[in-house]
Amino acid sequence: MKGKFGRTYKLDIFTPAGKRITIEPPLSIQFNISRNTLDSANTGSITIYNLAGGTRNQIYKDRYTTTEFWQVQLFAGYGNRIHQVIKGNIYEAYSYKQNTEWITKLEVYDGLDAIQNGFTSITIEKDTPKQNVIEQALSDMPNLIRGVLGSPIEGKSARGKSLIGQSYEIIQQETDNQAFIDNQVLNVLGNDEIIVGNIIYLDSSDLLATPRRRETFLDISILFEPQAAVARAYKIESLDPIYNGTYKIVGFTHDVEISSANSGKAITNISLNIGAEGLKERI
User: Fold this and answer.
1) Residue among 279, 270, 212 at smallest CA distance from 245
2) Model confidence, pTM
């Protein structure tokens, strides 16, 4: 629990015209973020209370306007130590009045623009490196950058073929569904591969419940941990020996309220995998 006082946040919204709208305390906010290494899009639900009318009126998006690119970056943490907890695109945004309060809701999908609007049409020859196919499809996906490409992109095409369709579906097909988008970055990793970076250590005083072990997986519930990042190393020490070890973060959720009026909830649930044969770092 060391240093976990003074929750704070900064929310940046970029309109299709490129205007930046920044929202910060003392306005109250709630967010529920879900990020994982699955092939489905990471999601975020953000609620802001009592925005000024002029700002509210600028933040509106119909869910059916798929070509409008609204980008969101939410940073949160403690004191002057904040981390990006989600970066994505607004799927839907609207405001309404409830009793005396104005409520603004944002539904956010990570990589939404790239998934919806990426289209690839290529013909490849036999023995074409799989990595070439992945990078071509990636280049066809707007507002997405290349991350870490691990073992699932190794090898060559066994035969010549034509690939036509949504770029993300082609990437999943070619990598056996081992690609994922996190904070608008495409990564492809095997189950036992992690991204090189700082190891996150569990502070046992943050635990909100007893960890739950399932074969090589471990689920833990802790105080809001803004440093959590998927496919990174997470180390547990000084608990029951059955829990201790270095794990891969395969998914997590944040359920957090930040308000000057009350303390509110601040929970992170993390799903970890220790790997069947240990973990391998990839750059």
Assistant:
1) 279
2) 0.94
* CA 164 to each of CA 168, 173, 192: distance values in angstroms, whole numbers, following the listed order: 11, 12, 31
Which CATH fold topology does 194-282 show? Elongation Factor Tu (Ef-tu); domain 3 (2.40.30)
Would the pLDDT of 278 be above 80? no
The domain spans of the chain are: 7-111, 114-190, 194-282
- Beta bridge partner(s), residue 48: 29, 104
Give dist(CA 180, CA 168) in Å, integer.
9
Q: Which one-letter DSSP state was computed for residue 248?
A: E
Contact, 183 vs 142, CB < 8 A?
no
Q: What is the CATH number of domain 114-190?
A: 3.55.50
Q: Do residues 150 and 190 touch, judged by C-beta distance below 8 A?
A: yes
pLDDT in tens, 26-42: 999 999 999 999 999 99
Helices first, then strands: H and E counts in the chain: 4, 20
Tokens of 17: 């015209």
The CA distances from residue 195 to 143, 179, 247, in Å, are 21, 13, 12
